Amino acid sequence: MIPLLETDALVKDYMIGGEILHAVNGVSLAIQRGEFVAIMGASGSGKSTFMNMIGCLDTPTSGTLRLDGIDTNSLSSDELADIRNRKIGFVFQQFNLLPRTSALDNVAVPLIYAGAGRAERQQRARAKLEAMGLGDRLENSPAKLSGGQQQRVAIARALVTEPLMLLADEPTGALDTQTSNDIMGIFQALNAAGITVVLVTHEPDIADYAERRILFRDGKVIEDEPVKNRRSPAS
Amino acid sequence: MIARLWRSLAGWGINVAIALTALRVNLMRSILTTLGVMIGVFSVILAVAIGAGAQVSVTESIGALGANMAIVVPEPDSDGPRRTTDRGRLTERDIKAIAKQVPGITATAPQLRTRVQLVAAGRNTTTEVIGATPDYAIVSNVNTDEGRFIEQGDANASSRIAVLGQTVATRLFGSYDPVGETVRINRVPFRIVGLLESKGSSFGNDNDDLVIVPLGTLRQRLLDTPAQGPDDIHIAFVGFDDEPSLIAGQNEIKKILRDRYRVAKGKINPFTVRTTTEIAEVTGEATQIFQALLVAIASISLLVGGIGIMNIMLVSVTERTREIGLRMALGAKRADIRNQFLVEAAVLCVIGGGVGLALAKVAALAFVAYADFPAPIGFGVAVGAILFSAVIGLAFGGWPAIRASRLSPIEALRSE
After folding, report:
1. What interface predicted TM-score (ipTM) does this complex get?
2. I need a labelling partner for A204 at 20 to 30 A (CA). Which of A12, A139, B232, B284 fits?
3. Chain B contact for A100, CB < 8 A?
4. Full residue range of the structural domain in which residue A197 is found
5. What is the pLDDT of residues B153-194, one digit of tens each?
6. How far is B25 from chain A (nearest CA, A)?
7. What's the structural domain count of chain A?
8. Residues of A in contact with B327 (CB under 8 A)
9. Rounded Cα distance, B17 and A122, in Å
10. What is the reported pTM?
């Protein structure tokens, strides 16, 4: 079976003050379906740039990126938008929910771009929110939800198009420890149910929820190994 | 094909929903922004309506003069300096000759006119008295509300009878019916036999501020400076069957008068013949220029409103860069983002245009009610205004919308 994600000599350069900065400098790795991977590294290590590329938000300078067997270099911006919509679910540090918009409508946004009808959008968004234990918060706007609840709405939104992969960028960065553990438990449960999870974090505790840890430094992968003593929310 | 069209329409419907949500979320700003377009559409529509009203009132004014009518006066037909010696003489015999020789004439109305003082029931007023023949009623299209007009018997006998215009009657008698009363015109007692139907005003002149007496009576009893000849007149109206015979008749009348008074070729004709068609054309042109000017001025406010929309859309795009990035991450294509902002601008403009239209309608009704000035807003103008508002939105919202759609998803997401 082909890997879900495969990069080959992936490079991303930036021009800063007339000098070339190799933000990602030749990364070749594969992520299999059903894996739970934590990408770690200090700020400036290239982990965020790498994540943006595998999320199809940014395009590589050179090298190839295959997502579900598709070479993304050959895709137009509309086709990339389609891949983001159907194959990837994003979870952000600051939740990025639309303000003054109900949880239900927030979760339904990706379905708008998938071309789903109103009734279908409502029904699917409701199902995902109920699965996140927010069945009684459907009409609440983000301001009326706690941080943990907001992040659960964001996870529901990431899942609503039934993507192959969840991409979580510091998903616990704005949450307290207890809530962070709850959220990581949700990711573990989702992963156990079959979805691939790629987590970007700089906190070793959080990375320990994953089963594989990839460490970035200066645009390169310097460590790639299974997590010993994997955590679960109870521990 | 139909399925694709439906999908694209449904897509736009979603954009309208997104736009309405965004506008509701920033309600105050939306209202202030749309105010510019509202005022713009309001002024343009009102300008169109006032212009159209001016045309209606001009048409009515000309109708009040009498349709298909030539006006003959013994004034030199020249735009240059006029000397009194250039004035011609005009007599009842001239008019009779014209009536006999020119085809298509329905009736003629030779007149003498002078200003007089009227006294009745202890009140007095000054007005213009017209000495007229019974046919004046036909040519000038006048009717009486009460009593009767001058009849042939009155003309033959040079009776001292008078027909009053509404304004004069009100000044002298209030709401009291004047028919059968006596009015002293320059101290000469006249019996009032009729009250004219109101004709409103034309070009600022009150068409009801007059009194009509038989032509002979005026000549004998009311003229300060005696006429040069026994049948001299000041002015004559010549009514025609229709417009073509009027246009042909105008030159015929000029020719007959030149012949009768042996005006040499190349000399200024001492008579002027104007037609209601000419008057309508000239005033019609003037009102069209007036309307165009009004609309041009009003359009400036609409332009300013449009720039306001562009300004606020640029602010909105900047403010919501992160939202744009998020939507792109969630799968929005460039066209989705562009359409979202386009629709937002168009919705703002259409709402502004609709409210502006409604306000213009209210103002137009107020014009009719308080200024007695017609300001019609046609269905076409109303629909046009709404469509034009949408076009303004698309035109001025276009650049901000395209800017939004060209943002890179990752940079947009990173922005604070």
Report:
1. 0.94
2. A12
3. yes
4. 5-61+74-97+161-226
5. 888 888 999 999 999 999 998 888 889 989 999 989 999 999
6. 7
7. 1
8. 109, 113
9. 14
10. 0.72
